[in-house]
Amino acid sequence: MSDLLVTGGQVLRPDMTVERADVLVDQDAGTIEAVGDPGGGDDELDAAGGLVIPGLVNTHTHVAMTLLRGLADDKPLDAWLREDIWPVEAELTPEDIRVGAELGLIEMIKSGTTALSDMYFAVEEIAQAVEQAGVRARLGYTAVTVGKDDEGARADLERSLEVAQEFDGAADGRIRTTFQPHSLTTVGEQFLREFVPQANEAGLATHLHANETPDEVGPIVEEHGVRPLAYAEDLGLLAGETYVAHGVHVDDSEIELLVETDTGVAHCPASNMKLASGMAPVQDMLDAGVTVGIGTDGAASNNDLDMFDEMRDAAMLGKLAAEDASAVDAPTVVEMATANGADLLGFDSGRIEPGANADLAVLNLDVPHLTPAHDLVSHLAYAARGSDVRHTVADGQVLMRDREVTVFDEDRVREAAVDHADALVERAM
After folding, report:
1. Taking the chain (429 residues) in consecutive chunks of 10 residues, what is each chunk's mean pLDDT?
2. 246 annotated as ligand-binding
3. Is the peptide bond before 303 cis (omega within 30 degrees of 0)?
4. Is 33 labeled as ligand-binding?
5. What's the domain range around 212?
6. Same domain assignment for residues 8 and 40
7. What CATH number is attached to the domain comprising 396?
8. Is 189 annotated as a binding residue?
9. Which helix H or strand E contains 333, and what residues bound it?
10. Is 212 labelled as part of a ligand binding site?
């Protein structure tokens, strides 16, 4: 057995207390063996002057969209998608997606993220990048029927089913999958009624965008006479393991429905603000018992994948939405980015205790913006940055040591990403 000892630091425990402790990791099993003073391991990771936290969980992103970072800004969602993003995405090659995914995974590793949920295309390329990166992921092929003929629409949804079944359990179980109809307004009802039962019968989890903007809610209410999530339930979309992205414009009846169906929400505050989509009633959802995680969305609508930024945004926006300074407080937002996110994706991560997945990040506390240390949980929510992460560990393996990513050649990936992004824009424009 090979052991890794994360030594000399303070540790964030599941109850949000902080104590001085070492963490012993069983690298063969990829789990935490002991927390406290367990003694030496075969390898050591120096956490002196640092805080050991669970690896962060990004519950909704489009990782390969790093190639589109800064390409189209300051537009509402519908115009942004139709006028800028979809035309460029039509020119993406599998090689582009692989490079964009590698770049995004490096960015996440360097900011302490060890698990993600991704929606995109050329999933085989993303899966290979995830396998090399060593992180955990929920992957899926995103199906859209709008603008497609009957044959093309069916092929897209069939591909989503095939990908979910093909890649589930890949990378020694670090990759799980989801069936992914893009949203309730970009996939036609006839196709949802045909393919959702197939996904449910196959026991697949489902991930989709829902209630992101008023323009997504209004047409469903007008056409079907019910709120979007009631429509989704009628289609069978809220059966089994389902989590929706955004959930900005949900009313009380829909929050109750989320609870009844055990449907989780991936909250994306930065993207919701940038696209002026609105303020999700996060505290109301949490109070009702909805599992709410945090996601960055893609780098084209954020424009980074730093979950520390996202935690701060979630806390601040949650207070504005509730008109209550005590809403979405620091411990809550840290839990959303760790344990809640892991629960949403179905990974036994998000907490530092024996038996849990050894997914960890070590923050350097010896920096001006984290001084003094009155409350380290507060610092995680309001002051820490991705650049404060010193080491990142996933599945017991060291992915970054002293800011040096060990699983990718960072310089090569960055150079390739620039070349691919430039060529992509030239083709699309």
Report:
1. 93 98 97 91 94 98 96 86 88 97 98 98 98 98 96 98 98 98 97 98 97 95 97 94 97 98 98 96 98 97 96 98 98 98 98 98 98 98 98 98 98 98 90
2. no
3. yes
4. no
5. 56-345
6. yes
7. 2.30.40.10
8. no
9. helix 330-335
10. yes
